[in-house]
Amino acid sequence: MKSLFCSILLATLAPAASLCAQTAKFDASATLHKAAPPQYAGTFSPGYGLISQGTNGRTAGTRFVVNNAILQNYYSYGGIGQEWVDNNKLYDLSTDHSEQVTGIHFIYCSSDTNPNGVSATMNFYDESVYCAGPVNWPTADCSYEIISLPGAQNGNLACWSVDVELVGMECNLTSDPTGTRSMGWGQVWHNDETGPWLADGGYGQTCSFTWFDTNTNTFMGCYWFGCLPHEGFYLQLFGGPVDTNRYWADDLGGASTAFDNGLLDVDFEVKSGNTCTFTLTDTGAIGFTHMKLFSSPNPAISPISAFGGNVLINPLTAIPHPVGGTAQTYTIPNLNGDYYTQAACFSNGNLVGFSNALRHQAL
After folding, report:
1. Beta carbons within 8 Å of 283's beta carbon, 6+ residues apart
2. Of 191, 211, 239, which residue constitutes the final position of a domain?
3. Higher pLDDT, 9 or 224
4. Partners of 12 in the β-ladder
């Protein structure tokens, strides 16, 4: 009877209704609220904070890994320390059944007037089960602290969209060739009256989410918004081309330095016969004018220290390309197996840094 009552209540009250648990538990404290038009807060880096306020700072990625972005004009919140975990699926596109997330875009709303802003922990889980939650909860595969975001504006509700740039902190998740497994996205807000904007449209989006109280490590149940439509939480995850992964000195057991100040990306899959443009971005405000691209069939086993930075591909098998601008286009020759690229960064003829390396898989 409680489940029937819950369905009737949602159908009658529509978006203004309270949440109802799929276990027939009714929770009157978790209500839906009408959202305000979102404003753009800027680009956030977990390593540096809000690096670009009100404008897009850098490129998060060229491809959607998750795109749950059809807005429903409502938001909700569970309270301080409550983790709500939504499920989506990853398309299985890469040869090694993995996805690398290079950027995040999310929308939230807040009535919190804290002068220091609002903050959240964003957790990503390789595997999350419908109405049961992540199989390894509370251990996340990737976790990011997002702090000092804007809250209420002039004492009134405000909604904000945020880009999160994961340079050097990319999240590697496993995709499923059977198409049956879901990944989980959890958010824990550390301020009251603050929470996610509802949305749908993503691959594998379900009409429920799981609720955990991180204050007591308690599973609170499986909740929903009535399934009209399959509402979840707004989330876009970005990545680079398929079969392309960034890696850094830290990924090879070393440590990045200030000389590792370039971000190397490519716009298209590095496959035999493809035309691809490699682009170098200055992450240290050095003022890059040129780059020298190196490619190799072999990575470095461990980072090789050079000029205060790190060489990440095997220098014995590295093929140097001519020094050119910070965007260089090549037609890829016939290649076999994995391939690796890295750039040396120049400013007016002086070597001023190294980039990350890229692994191009199963050419």
Report:
1. 58, 167, 261, 262, 263
2. 239
3. 224
4. none
